[in-house]
Design a protein that fits this description.
The chain contains 13 helices and 14 strands. The protein has 397 residues and is an alpha/beta fold.
Length: 397
């Protein structure tokens, strides 16, 4: 029997958790109340903290310690390991303040994309990227603190329960699509390339395009880890530049990790590695104020990467390509790597591009299933898109 899991710390949020559980039951949704508290348990939950804590690699003793921060971190680890193995899980609604949100969200991120996940949190109106990551967690701001029931919290929590019941009980079925799924990465300055590749492949593949703004690459790789894509055409690896140079759209250090964990066919390129993203011009860090900057829009300022930075970026990419277990082809567009990196455009810098290309070529261990190809085209040229499609078809054989 499929159930909605209601998760939180019963020692501090027991009344609110019971309220959400009861709302779900009234909606006709079966539930399991899971207590992840690290203090004395009131014994009201269907799943006691001890059961969850046993999933920790070092057992429950690692969770129930005197240091609260250590205990919460250990319980988060235990919950992350315990939750995905539940065979009756239909969806999850979590309740928490900053600590509870940090405890519960890693477990929500560990669930497959498509499993309903809702986190009612006091921090949901702020920067939530660290909690959501590349997953499909729905964050709901609690408005008042999760500290008792009142005229506001009752309405918010009832809405959360209704939302979870709707997701869990939805009668809609996923539309069938027997085409294999491909993950593609795109930025505004590589749109022409990705659109051309997609138009050439969408009759045979279900093309899933991800915006390379830090979470885009993570979301694509989350789907890869979940077995929901059959190949990657990762043309816009710009998030790696932000990671290494300090921009606002950075990849995580796990970028390019999914194709190392599973033998997915991988075609990649250097899309938008000529730039690092910052906020408005006034917010560009002081050490970079005298660099070559370009105002992409009032909210985003781009900084041209240097040859030295591109050596670091290229080495990072090459090392990650070496770890991939499936067939790999990485394409180097000598005519420019973004719409701004072309003759007459503000970021045109063949020397910087050359440093990037050489670092990749120097680092990658070539073999029967790993190749790096230089092409005399701009990344947004039609000929480059044709080469991308041909490369993917070749490594698929």
């Amino acid at each position: 029997m499929r159930r909605a899991y209601v998760i939180g710390t019963c020692d501090t949020k027991g009344v609110e958790l019971a309220f959400v559980r009861d709302c779900l039951e009234r909606e006709g949704t079966r539930t399991r109340l899971v207590d992840v508290g690290t203090r004395q348990s009131p014994g009201m939950a269907d799943v006691a903290p001890d059961e969850v804590a046993m999933a920790h690699p070092d057992g429950a003793a690692a969770v129930f310690v005197d240091d609260r921060g250590q205990a919460v971190a250990a319980m988060a680890d235990a919950l992350r390991r315990w939750l995905p193995d539940r065979d009756d899980l239909a969806g999850v609604v979590g309740l928490g303040g900053s600590g509870g949100t940090a405890l519960i969200c890693p477990a929500l991120r560990a669930l497959d994309v498509g499993v309903p996940k809702l986190m009612v949190s006091t921090v949901a109106s702020g920067q939530v990227g660290q909690y959501v990551g590349g997953s499909d967690i729905t964050m709901m701001y609690s408005v008042t603190d999760v500290a008792g029931l009142n005229r506001v919290s009752r309405k918010v929590l009832a809405n959360a329960a209704a939302a979870m019941a709707g997701m869990v009980n939805s009668a809609s079925e996923e539309q069938g699509d027997d085409r294999p799924a491909l993950g593609l990465t795109m930025f505004g300055v590589t749109t022409a390339c990705v659109d051309a590749v997609r138009s050439k492949m969408e009759d045979r593949y279900d093309c899933l395009v991800f915006h390379a703004t830090g979470t885009g690459g993570a979301a694509m790789e989350k789907l890869a880890d979940s077995g929901l894509v059959d190949g990657l055409i990762d043309l816009t690896t710009t998030e790696i530049a932000d990671l290494l140079v300090g921009g606002i759209f950075p990849a995580s250090d796990d970028r390019l990790g999914a194709p190392a964990r599973g033998p997915l066919p991988y075609v990649g390129s250097c899309g938008a590695l000529d730039m690092v993203n910052f906020g408005p011009v006034s917010e560009v860090p002081e050490p970079y104020r005298k660099r070559l900057l370009y105002a992409h829009n009032p909210q985003v300022t781009l900084m041209r990467t240097t040859p030295d930075e591109n050596v670091r970026i290229g080495t990072f990419i090459g090392e990650r390509l070496n770890r991939m277990s499936g067939p790999v082809c990485f394409l180097l567009p000598e005519g420019g790597i973004s719409a701004l990196d072309a003759p007459g455009q503000p970021f045109w810098d063949p020397e910087a591009d050359q440093a990037l290309f050489e670092a990749i070529e120097r680092t990658v261990r070539l073999g029967a299933h790993h190749s790096v190809l230089r092409l005399p085209h701009h990344i947004n040229d039609e000929q480059f898109a044709q080469a991308v499609v041909a490369a993917f078809e070749e490594i698929q054989r």
